[in-house]
Every structure is written in C-alpha cells, then in structure tokens.
C-alpha cells in the first residue's frame, strides 16, 4: 500500500503544482523586497535567518491557500483530482495510526545569527556583537565546545547550556529543584521565594539543609524519588499540626518562632482543587488511571459561558481521568480548580495562594459532581456494609485513613438512623400507588437508608479533614 499511495500522491501533487506556483508568484509580490529575496534565494545558499523567513512565508502561504487549490483546477483536472482522492481513500483501512507528535526546538544551522548589545534595549540601535556566555556572577567558565551528532545542523549552544545547568557543581539547579520539592511537602520552601534565589528574594531558613539535599540529589543520579523519600520519611514531615495549648513547650515555641520557620510543628495544608477532585474519584472507585493521550474533558456545570465551554468526552471513563489530564484552557478554568485557587493560566505562579471563601463551601455543597460522587460512594458502602456498625468505620478508613473515635462512631450511627427516619416518610409518599402498602414501606425504608448514607458521604466530602493535610 505504501508504493501505491506514494504514486497516487505524486500524481495529485503534479496536478496541483502549477496552481501552487501561480499562487506563490502572486502572493510573493505583496511582501517587501528583502523578504522576497529570502524566499527566492536557493535553499543551499540561504543564511540561517533567510531560511527562517522563507519557512515562515511558505507556511503562511500554505495555510492561506492549500485548501483552495483543488477549486482552481479546470473541469478535466478537477475530475482527475477527485478520482485520485477516491483511490487514495481506499487505502485508509490499511494505513497505520499516525505516530505521536511532540513540539521541539531546533537550530537553523551550524552558524548562529549575530547577537548585538542594544543601545537602550532598542533593536534598531545595535552596538557591538556579543559572544555566548554564562552569567558572570555564577561562573567565569566559558561554554565548552561539544561534539554534536550533526555539526552541520546545530550550533551546539543549547546542548552547552544544558550541560552547564546539570553540572554537579552548578550552584543553582539542584538547590532550586529540592526547594520546590520541599515546598510541595511542607507548604513553604526552605527559600520562601522559589522563583527568586537572588538578593531580592528570601534567605534560606536552613541553608545547610538546602545544600545537603542538593548534594543528595546529584549524588543519586538526580533521582527525584530519592529526595521525595528522604523528605516524607523524615521526623520533621511526620510531625502533627495539632498544638496542645496547655503544653509549656508549645507556648515557648509559639513565642520564639510564631511563623514556624524552624519547623517545630507541621503546617496544616489544604489540598488543591485538582487533588480534591482526584480524592473524590479515587474514594468512589471511579477514577480512570489511564495515562498519556488526549486531555480529559469533564462535564462543565450549568452557567459556564458557551463561548468558552468545551464539549465533554463521549465516554464517562475519559471524563474521570486524573486532574492532571483535565483540559487546560487559558480563558476557562475548571470551576472546582478555580474555586480552590488555581492560578491564572497566562502567568507563571511560584506558589499558589490558599484562601478560605464562601464559594468553596457552596461549590462542595451544591456541585452536581460532588453529589454524584457521594451517591456513587454511598452505593458501594451500602453494598459492602451490612449495618451502620460496619459502614461508619469503613467510610472513615477510606476517607481519612483512620478509625473513628468512639464519639464519632456514636454520632455517625445516630445521624444515619435519624436521617433515614426523616427521609422515609417523604419517600413513602412518593412511591407508586400501584404497590402494596407493605412493598411501598419496604422500598421506602431501603431508599431512605441509601439517601441517608449519601448525605453522610456528602458531609464527609465537605469536612475539613477530607480537604486538608494535617
């Protein structure tokens, strides 16, 4: 099929080429002389800058006119073109899927364009040319010439920069990385300004710890997993955020270090909107663990502007993938993410703010997604637990990772019993009149228990412990 399709495509190109040449000739006249010269210069003789401009002009022409080329053919050639397209479509079933694509950056050639120092930053007032180099306040070393795979196609500058950034003795790279990991686990980095390690940023609270973690990262082959493991198994990470006001040591530490810079207790952290959504999907068993592929497009709530809304995935499983795969649209943030302080997607964000607002509570209480997750979880709990004595502990283990206290156990049982009785009378009135009184009563009792468990699950989703890390 490859040989056959190649021949058909060759014939199609032969039909379209005269029309394409005519369009190029007409369109090129609209550009200024310098741009025309870049395009008309033979490819082998073009400078890197001319090659870049010529490629931009070619792409623009193709974007504007390629789809209209068949319409410019005369009647005979158009019939021939349609027949060739029909022949080509017969091989669609044999064609393998297209390979995955990735965006990449490449040099235009071995010779880089000259870079000038600009007078006042004005591109129209260039001064002396500049050679590549690294920031002098970090190193006095000059870039090393590297043996690249294809010396004719690259300057090697990006490879030089990459090698310099990952040198074991680089003063910033490893420190910046481990500081980000520390910020993720502890709520604040050792350097509180993760995007600024300079004099304008904050000083490290534990400089020796920062240096040691950076050395650990490099010595273990830049393994992030190794550093994650060190942090989460440390005694500092395993501290509690609970403070006993009657403890003299707590009072002394609060006076000496109210901002907890010395990490004498754990900082209480609220989950991000993405993590809250993932937690609900995981606890209900609805999370789709599939990795890679196209972005997930969950159902959007009512009221989202139709101008920016996306069409939900046809398959429910695709909608329930992890939040990291949810479609990111700059002018439309997924509502639960936005409510829980997802930053503006047009700007870099060094550290997310944490707010406590009424819309967060209202969304967790009234969201269709939250209610559906509560109903799904309730169905599984009712199916697996014979009574409230087993249902309440199971819910606590799945939601909080612990057993309920005796008081929580009593309150959970009482809520489920009282809520079921409260709902049973309403449900019984709504049952079909065709059912016998006994059947209607049994159905109402079962439905009331299911609804009571749903309310119980809904309350757990809205609890502070569920959306926080203590």
Your description of this structure?
This protein has 470 residues and is mostly helical. The chain has 17 helices and four strands. It has helices at residues 2-28, 33-40, 48-65, 75-89, 157-165, 173-186, 207-219, 224-232, 248-256, 273-284, 316-319, 335-339, 358-366, 368-384, 388-400, 406-430, 437-461; strands at residues 115-118, 126-130, 269-270, 468-469. The strands form two sheets. Strands 1-2 form a two-stranded antiparallel sheet. Strands 3-4 form a two-stranded antiparallel ribbon. The chain is flat. The relative contact order is 0.05. The mean pLDDT is 87.
Element string (H = helix, E = strand): HHHHEEHHHHHEHHHHHHHHE
Estimated share of beta-strand residues = under 5%
Biggest β-sheet strands, sense, barrel? 2 strands, antiparallel
Shape: flat
If you compute it from the alpha carbons, what radius of gyration comes out, rounded to the nearest whole angstrom?
32 Å
- Secondary structure class reads mainly alpha
How many strands in all?
4
Mean pLDDT: 87
Strand order of the largest sheet: 1-2
User: What portion of residues is helical?
Assistant: 40-55%
Q: Distance between the terminal alpha carbons, to the nearest Å?
A: 62 Å
Poorly predicted spans:
none
């Amino acid at each position: 099929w490859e040989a056959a399709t190649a021949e058909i495509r060759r014939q199609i190109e032969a039909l379209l080429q005269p029309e394409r040449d005519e369009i190029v000739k007409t369109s090129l006249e609209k550009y200024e002389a310098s741009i025309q010269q870049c395009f008309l210069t033979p490819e082998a003789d073009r400078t890197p800058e001319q090659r870049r401009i010529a490629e931009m002009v070619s792409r623009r022409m193709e974007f504007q006119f390629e789809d209209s080329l068949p319409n410019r053919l005369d009647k005979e050639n158009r019939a021939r073109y349609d027949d060739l397209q029909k022949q080509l479509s017969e091989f669609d079933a044999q064609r393998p899927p297209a390979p995955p694509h990735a965006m990449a950056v490449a040099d235009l050639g071995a010779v880089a364009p000259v870079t000038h120092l600009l007078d006042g930053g004005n591109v129209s007032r260039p001064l002396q040319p500049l050679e590549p180099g690294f920031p002098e306040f970090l190193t006095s070393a000059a870039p090393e010439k590297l043996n690249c795979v294809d010396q004719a196609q690259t300057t090697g500058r990006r490879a030089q920069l990459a090698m310099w950034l990952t040198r074991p003795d680089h003063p910033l790279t490893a420190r910046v990385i481990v500081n980000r990991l520390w910020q993720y686990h502890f709520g604040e980095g050792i350097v509180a300004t993760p995007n600024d390690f300079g004099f304008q940023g904050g000083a490290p609270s534990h400089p020796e710890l920062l240096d040691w973690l950076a050395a650990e990262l490099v010595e273990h082959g830049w393994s992030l997993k190794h550093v994650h493991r060190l942090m989460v198994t440390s005694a500092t990470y395993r501290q509690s955020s609970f403070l006993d006001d009657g403890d003299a040591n707590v009072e002394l530490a609060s006076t000496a270090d109210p901002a907890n810079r010395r990490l004498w207790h754990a900082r209480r952290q609220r989950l991000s909107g993405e993590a809250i959504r993932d937690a609900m999907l995981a606890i209900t068993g609805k999370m789709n663990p599939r990795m890679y592929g196209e972005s997930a497009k969950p159902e959007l709530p009512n009221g989202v502007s139709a101008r920016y809304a996306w069409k939900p995935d046809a398959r429910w499983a695709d909608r329930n993938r992890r939040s990291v795969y949810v479609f990111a649209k700059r002018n439309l943030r997924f509502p639960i993410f936005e409510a829980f302080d997802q930053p503006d997607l047009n700007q870099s964000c060094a550290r997310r703010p944490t707010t406590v607002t009424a819309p967060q509570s209202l969304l967790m209480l009234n969201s269709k997604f939250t209610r559906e997750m509560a109903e799904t979880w309730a169905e599984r709990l009712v199916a697996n637990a014979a009574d409230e004595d087993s249902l309440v502990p199971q819910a606590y283990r799945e939601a909080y990772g612990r057993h309920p206290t005796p008081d929580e156990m009593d309150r959970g049982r009482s809520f489920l019993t009282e809520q079921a009785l409260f709902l049973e009378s309403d449900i019984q009135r709504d049952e079909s009149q065709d059912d016998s009184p006994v059947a209607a009563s049994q159905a109402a009792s079962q439905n009331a228990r299911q609804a009571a468990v749903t309310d119980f699950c809904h309350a757990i989703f809205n609890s502070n412990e569920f959306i926080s890390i203590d």
